[in-house]
Design brief:
By secondary structure, the chain is of the alpha/beta class. The strands form 4 sheets. Strands 12-13-14-11-10-15-16 form a 7-stranded mixed sheet, with helices on both faces. Helix 9 runs parallel beside helix 10 and helix 11 crosses helix 12. It starts with 34 loop residues before the first helix and ends with a helix. It binds nicotinamide-adenine-dinucleotide (NAD). Nicotinamide-adenine-dinucleotide binds next to helix 9 and helix 10.
Length: 541
């Protein structure tokens, strides 16, 4: 693993060099004068308190973000509700045009987005690019398929020709979106895009660590033409603002840990409102005996170490067929050792920093616990303060046993455990072990066999001969978790229909559903019984 050549952030238009002491005496980076303020002015935050956002690149403050009070949350909902009443009458085609403008803006403003994502999250620039890519894909997909998802649909009426049934997709109203820090640009926008398209307003509460990126997302929505009040952003601790948000939402979209997801589900249940919960995972990869081992090793590196493993669909358990175990491990470890690590703004890094001291502590604790209980470190295993305050090496473990924390608990860091399997039934059973069910991957040169195995894996997405990107970037396909990895789905028709109520409108002609012309109830029942038999005979649904 080579060290970065230049620890300072080169070529970043937001960085002007040494801090302006009047602006922030402790800052190492000074964002272009007025840039942070122009972003934070988009917040509804009048509590009078601020919270510092620190760059994981060097631990120095980037900005002081004003915090929202409960009254600000109430005001955000009031504004959003007023804006939604108007927005619901804007034709879907016009909403879709705005999404296509968002798509273009994301591509045009890529450098600004990537700079801010890297500064705020510490990730490698190529992983920040994945975020811009994902939002462009999501915006284009929903813009192009808006009619397909939202147009009123005809359904079968009970009496052919006489009962006309239509199903409308009615917006829920105001959607509360609570999101984490790990993919700050993706998480800020990807769930809100279909909510807006379906005619809703949004009140978003992004994670405190990555508030600036979320506010840049809001700015791009404004520039794409969405009415500003339609998308409100509030800032503050989830524990304090979560309740006030859920109390006022018509639907809640939460992405984060399983523990928080359970709290949110209970609060939504109290109000009888729906929620989608995109939660944690302990994702398995299966390398079958007929896998292309080079391809599997390349995929395993991306699956385990993208965004330094701080990715919900990241692989943390690698099950390899006995017959190819040694050959696979040799390739996988060599590729891991060839990775370039660094906490810099440039494209050169294969893996960047963890986001915070808390993440570093968790990762270190999982590795130390495993080693203390007898696991072997095949590569990695150490923090790298020489590269950045929260950098941790990509780490491959062998000999991990059920008593070790990292066996079943999500690490959410660059740590993967290797296991051998003897037959595929055993591999599937072990992949299904534990409480999670988010993502899996299967490597085999027999695609049909891999797809057949996938049906037995209890995960919401399964990638064959890919790490996670094939499902994640196929926006037409639903994405989400089984079991404790969540409920509900983002992407595809499921990802937009969750923000709508289906409303059935049936118009009845001529026939009434009651006896006519003095017919007795008994005769009516006989006529209807005969009708039912005829309908079945002619094959009607
Ligand atoms: P977290 O649950 O601690 O926080 C996520 C968000 O919830 C933050 O905005 C936080 O402020 C807020 N929050 C915290 N407590 C709250 C409460 N009581 N009420 C309302 N809001 C509250 O999660 P985290 O540790 O920051 O994020 C990492 C987790 O997110 C991992 O488990 C990861 O797997 C998961 N994740 C899942 C997906 C997915 O799509 N399934 C995507 C990204 C991350």
């Amino acid at each position: 693993m080579s060290a970065p050549q230049d620890p300072s952030p080169p070529g970043n238009p937001l960085v002007e060099g040494p801090a302006d002491p009047e602006h922030d005496p402790t800052a190492v980076y000074a964002l272009e004068r007025g840039y942070v303020e122009s972003l934070t002015s988009r917040l509804l935050a009048t509590s009078g308190t601020t919270v510092p956002v620190r760059s994981p690149l060097d631990g120095a403050p980037l900005a002081h973000v004003p915090q929202s009070s409960e009254a600000d949350v109430a005001e955000a909902f009031a504004r959003a509700r007023r804006a939604q009443a108007v927005w619901a009458r804007v034709p879907v085609a016009e909403r879709a045009r705005m999404l296509l403008r968002l798509h273009d803006l994301v591509l045009e403003r890529q450098e600004e987005i990537l700079d801010l994502v890297v500064l705020e999250s510490g990730k490698a620039r190529k992983h920040a690019f994945d975020e811009a890519l994902h939002i462009a894909l999501t915006a284009r997909y929903y813009a192009r398929t808006a009619r397909q998802h939202l147009a009123t649909q005809r359904r079968l009426g009970v009496v052919p020709g006489l009962t006309r049934v239509e199903v409308n997709r009615v917006p829920k109203g105001v959607v509360g979106i609570i999101s984490p820090w790990n993919y700050p640009f993706t998480m800020a926008l990807c769930d809100g895009i279909p909510a807006l398209l379906a005619g809703n307003a949004v009140v978003a509460k992004p994670d405190a660590q990555t508030m600036l990126t979320a506010l840049l997302g809001a700015r791009l929505l404004d520039e794409a033409g969405f009415p500003q009040d339609l998308w409100q952003v509030v800032a503050g601790p989830g524990r304090e603002l979560g309740g006030p948000i859920i109390e006022r939402s018509d639907y809640v979209c939460f992405t984060g840990s399983t523990a928080t997801g359970k709290v949110i589900a209970a609060q939504c249940a109290e109000r009888l409102i729906g929620c989608s919960l995109e939660l944690g995972g302990k994702n398995p990869m299966l390398v079958l005996r007929d896998a292309d081992l080079e391809r599997a090793a390349e995929g395993a590196v991306r699956a385990s170490f993208s965004n330094a493993g701080q990715l919900c669909v990241s692989t943390e358990r690698l099950y390899v067929a006995d017959q190819v175990y040694d050959r696979f491990v040799e390739r996988f470890v060599a590729r891991t050792q060839a990775m370039t690590l660094g906490a810099t703004m440039a494209w050169e890094n294969d893996m960047g920093s963890l986001v915070s001291q808390a993440q570093l502590d968790t990762v270190r604790a999982h590795v130390d616990d495993a080693v203390a209980r007898g696991a072997r470190v095949l590569t990695g295993g150490r923090a790298r303060p020489d590269l950045g305050p929260y950098v941790f090496e990509p780490t491959v473990l062998e000999g991990v046993t059920p008593d070790m924390t990292c066996f079943g608990h999500e690490t959410f860091g660059p740590v993967v455990s290797l296991y051998r399997f003897h037959d595929e039934a055993d591999a599937v059973a072990r992949a299904n072990d534990g409480d999670y069910g988010l993502n899996a991957s299967i490597y085999s040169q027999d695609g049909a066999r891999a797809r057949a195995i996938a049906r037995h894996v209890r995960c919401g997405t399964v990638n064959v001969n890919e790490a996670f990107a094939a499902t994640f970037a196929s926006i037409d396909a639903p994405m989400g978790g089984m079991r404790e990895s969540g409920t509900g789905r983002r992407q595809g028709s499921e990802g937009i229909h969750r923000y709508t109520e289906s409303q059935s409108v049936a118009t009845q002609r001529l026939l009434r559903f009651s006896p006519v012309l003095g017919m007795s109830d008994e005769t009516y029942a006989k006529v209807m019984t005969a009708n039912l038999r005829i309908m079945k005979k002619i094959g009607r649904a």
